[in-house]
Design goal:
Number of helices: 2
Distance between the termini: 35 Å
CATH class: Alpha Beta
Order of helices and strands: EEHEHEE
CATH architecture: Roll
Strand content: 15-25%
Number of domains: 1
CATH superfamily: Beta-grasp domain
Helix content: 10-25%
CATH topology: Ubiquitin-like (UB roll)
Structural class: alpha+beta
Radius of gyration: 13 Å
Length: 110
């Protein structure tokens, strides 16, 4: 598959479908930013700031490698942490991401 669909839950509850290529080594943070979502990405995708915090509402087990200790350490600083929280910069876009549903939660300070 060369293009996957990423579903994003908006604040209103509406689901927006985004298309993302799997052959460009993108991560979810880059896809969200490229589609105009207000992802600060202060650290540039190094898993050092948590401003790309998302909850993976559907497809959590599909998003590639489990969170690393460094990612969990950053997530653990957030007041709005959920059992399905991830940093979007750590989710690589590949075929397994097709049709996941995410909601951008930001850094917990928005």
């Amino acid at each position: 598959m060369e293009i996957v669909t990423i579903r994003v839950e908006e604040e209103s509850g509406h689901i927006t479908e985004l298309e993302a290529p799997t052959d460009m080594s993108l991560n979810l943070m880059e896809v969200l930013k490229g589609n105009g979502y207000p992802v600060k990405a202060t650290c540039g995708g190094m898993a050092l700031c948590a401003t790309c915090h998302v909850t993976v509402k559907e497809g959590f087990d599909q998003v590639g490698e489990p969170a690393t200790d460094d990612e969990w350490a950053m997530l653990d600083t957030l007041y709005n942490l959920t059992s399905q929280s991830r940093l979007a910069c750590q989710i690589k876009i590949d075929d397994a991401c097709h049709n996941i549903l995410v909601k951008h939660l930001g850094d917990g300070e928005d």
